[in-house]
Amino acid sequence: MDYSTLFFLLQERRSCRSFQPGQSLEPDEVMMIIKAGQQAPNPLNQQPWSFVVITSPEARKKLRQAGEQAKQAVLEQGGPGWVGGFSIDFMEEAPLVIAVVVDPRKGGLGEYFNQPLGSVQAGSACMQNMMLAATTLGFGTLWFTFFDPAAVKLILSIPDDHEIIGLLFVGKASGEIPSSRRRDPVIYADSFGVEYDQG
Ligand SMILES: Cc1cc2nc3c(=O)[nH]c(=O)nc-3n(C[C@H](O)[C@H](O)[C@H](O)COP(=O)(O)O)c2cc1C
After folding, report:
1. Does residue 87 have a pLDDT over 90?
2. Total structural domains within the chain
3. Which of 26, 50, 97, 113 is at 20 to 30 A from 173, Cα to Cα?
């Protein structure tokens, strides 16, 4: 196995917020992405996830409206002003959106010892797998959560007792995806606060 591929991919995946219109995915590409998601670790292998594949322009338009409403809500509550200028045109440009949804009742045994987030943790791992798979297939992706979940549940008929991990926007990137840097890792040795020698 060539391990360098994974490390390359991890660098290559960057949040894409501009997509080429009309570059839709083949059905087998959609399935490859979803099946990659399903390989994620998850508590008790309960596989809490389900997926809503969204391709219709009408649904994407409604999702975009939910995004615009979320922007408005942030501004009305005195949130950061830059939100007003943050373009979410990509919500209609991307040919494919996959909503990753989890059933919180499938989160393993965590509820018995104050760890209620098992399904969300699994759904997040699933989402990351999907993004890396889409990157491998040559697509740009964005994990998007800038919406009121109640509004998106209504649009996609997602039951109230399920949680949305995010909307995954997928498509051919338009232009270079801007790189994003990471700060030096904060690592402790044996005890939180005790510096780890990073060599
Ligand atoms: C849970 C989660 C929610 C996110 N929600 C949004 C979002 O609503 N809008 C957006 O533009 N990016 C969103 N992102 C992407 C982050 O902004 C992005 O991952 C971060 O800035 C690092 O950039 P990179 O992905 O290019 O490395 C989200 C990422 C995660 C993990």
Report:
1. yes
2. 1
3. 50
Q: Is residue 134 part of a domain?
A: yes
Residues with CB under 6 A from ligand 1: 14-15, 17, 142-146, 166, 180
Atom 6, ligand 1: residue with shortest CA distance: 144
Determine the structural domain holding residue 75 and report its residue range. 18-171
> Distance of CA 99 to CAs 89, 119, 158, Å?
18, 15, 10
What local confidence, expressed as pLDDT, does residue 2 receive?
78
* Mean confidence (pLDDT) of the chain: 96
Distance of CA 25 to the CA centre of its chain: 18
Q: Is residue 12 part of a domain?
A: no
Question: What CATH number has the domain bearing residue 123?
Answer: 3.40.109.10
CA–CA separation, 9 vs 137, rounded Å? 11
Q: In whole angstroms, what is the distance from residue 179 CA to residue 85 CA?
A: 20
Q: What is d(CA 168, CA 184) in angstroms, rounded to the nearest whole number?
A: 28
Is residue 17 predicted with pLDDT exceeding 90? yes
At residue 1 the predicted structure's pLDDT band, cuts being 50, 70 and 90, is low
Atom of ligand 1 nearest to the CA of 14: 26
State the Cα–Cα distance between residues 72 and 79, nearest whole angstrom: 10
